[in-house]
Design brief:
The protein has helices spanning 13-16, 42-60, 70-77, 108-116, 142-156, 171-179, 188-195, 200-223, 230-244, 304-323, 330-334, 348-351, and strands at residues 64-67, 92-96, 102-105, 125-127, 164-166, 184-186, 248-256, 277-286, 289-290, 293-299, 356-359, 366-370, 387-395, 402-412, 415-418, 429-430. The chain is of the alpha+beta class and 433 residues long. It has two domains: 13-195, 3-Layer(aba) Sandwich (Creatine Amidinohydrolase, Chain A, domain 1), CATH 3.40.350.10; 200-430, Creatine Amidinohydrolase.
Length: 433
């Protein structure tokens, strides 16, 4: 029986069920599907994400959400055309409270979706191009064309008089929507609400992604010797991850020696030297689910100052993880982290990102985001099914060494379960002399 055009879609209870299996170990199976055990059910994953979005949309007071953020597009539609599209603002997706997802994609990608994405209606997969971040001059009228098409759908599905949520866009897109008489509101908060609780399938994908990095750190530990460049470690890590099945190596930070303090958040061609401190952050994704995974090493030998800094960073880490339980609030966890002055900064803004927690999923930074900068003003409650990274950083008293540790955790009903397994309880010394 055909659904009436303006009839709101109510998520099915079974689609909203995250299918958690807390009584079993968190699984990290291989990267391929098999017929002899259940791994990831991708259709169940799609149904869950779409149901979560519909539920969040219904609570928001918005009539529809329009997304240019690649994380949100994948979450709603289960479509992707690779990292090429990440910064183009060319793909977009529309979901109304009364309809199914529409996807506008680059050229032949829309035709590909019609052929290979049966969970989407064929007439909802359309070619689109608002202008490629201004490369096509707005005077051509592509923004206005897109806005009119969107307005027509909002009218057809009975939500044209309700606010439209929008996550990110080029300013001319916003102006074109407003010119059509559309009341545009912030849609990113609604989408982050939807993405907050991970299903069993999402947790499995996040755990697989972490298991890949476990192996990369083993290779890094073996390769970390004097005469090797930071950039060579980046190349080693990237190659290994793609061989293991990564769909995107977004970034590999490689920091060594005197570059460790302050943290520059990048890599260079600097040569590793005997006794260097060295830390790395590996950010990649498997099936769209990301890691953020720091580890610190000493090369050959560790100085007393470096060892002391590492112990402090580990203490802060363990103190924060101990507090991570459903029912705790973000401000309580933020208390576990050192004040900015304790690590040599004059404000929490200046120290932001060094000692904090951030959610992980299809995006690198989701909820919860816990730090001394924001959590006292927004002390929301932690819930089972959240997945996030916990990061600590401690500069050493020698003026150049530093320790950087990051653990990814799944919040189970009983507390935090760590899924980043390369040893980090004590400072690892690579190729000890």
């Amino acid at each position: 029986m055909a659904r009436k055009t303006h009839e709101p879609i109510v998520p099915k209870p079974e689609d909203l069920d995250p299918h958690h299996r807390w009584h079993r170990p968190l699984q990290a199976p291989g990267t391929t599907q098999v017929d002899f055990e259940e791994r990831v059910d991708f259709r169940r994953l799609h149904n869950y994400r779409l149901a979560r979005t519909r539920q969040s949309l219904a609570k928001s007071g918005l009539g529809a959400v329009l997304c240019f953020d690649q994380y949100n597009i994948r979450y709603i539609s289960s479509t992707v055309i690779g990292e090429w599209a990440r910064d183009k603002l060319i793909r977009y997706c529309l979901l109304t409270g009364n309809g199914d997802p529409y996807v506008w994609d680059f050229g032949s990608a829309a035709r590909h979706h019609k052929l290979n994405c049966p969970w989407l209606a064929e007439d909802h997969c359309r070619a689109g191009n608002p202008g490629m971040r201004g490369a096509i001059n707005p005077k051509v009228g592509l923004f206005e064309l897109a806005a009119r098409e969107i307005k027509d759908i909002l009218v057809q599905e009975g939500v044209a008089n309700m606010p439209l949520g929008l996550d990110v866009c080029e300013p001319p897109m916003l102006f074109a929507l407003q010119k059509e008489g559309i009341d545009v509101r912030d849609g990113q908060q609604m989408m982050l609400d939807a993405r907050e609780i991970k299903s069993h399938d999402e947790i499995t994908l996040l755990n697989i992604a972490s298991s890949m990095v476990d192996g990369v750190y083993q290779d890094i530990a073996e390769a970390l010797k004097p005469g090797v460049k930071e950039s060579q470690i980046v190349a080693l890590a990237s190659k290994k991850l793609y061989e293991l099945g990564s769909d995107c190596v977004e970034a590999v930070n490689a920091i060594a020696g005197e570059r460790c303090s302050p943290h520059p958040h990048n890599f260079t061609d600097r040569l590793i030297r005997p006794g260097d401190p060295a830390y790395f952050d590996i950010i990649h994704s498997f099936m769209g689910y990301r890691t953020c995974y720091y580890r610190t090493f000493a090369v050959g030998r560790a100085s007393p100052a470096h060892i002391t800094a590492y112990k402090k960073a580990r203490e802060w880490m363990d103190r924060a993880i101990e507090l991570l339980k459903p029912g705790m609030t973000c401000d309580q966890v933020a208390n576990a982290f050192p004040k900015a002055e304790e690590i040599g900064f004059d404000s929490e803004m200046a120290a932001f990102g060094l000692n904090f927690c951030h959610g992980l999923g299809v995006g690198l930074h989701e909820r919860p985001l816990i730090s001394r900068l924001n959590s006292y003003k927004d002390p929301y409650e932690l819930k089972a099914g959240m997945v996030f990274a916990v990061e600590t950083y401690c500069p050493a008293t020698d003026g150049y060494s530093a320790a950087r540790i990051e653990e990814e955790v799944v919040l189970t009903p009983d507390g935090a379960k760590v899924i980043t397994l390369y040893p980090a309880d004590e400072l690892p010394v690579a190729n000890k002399y």
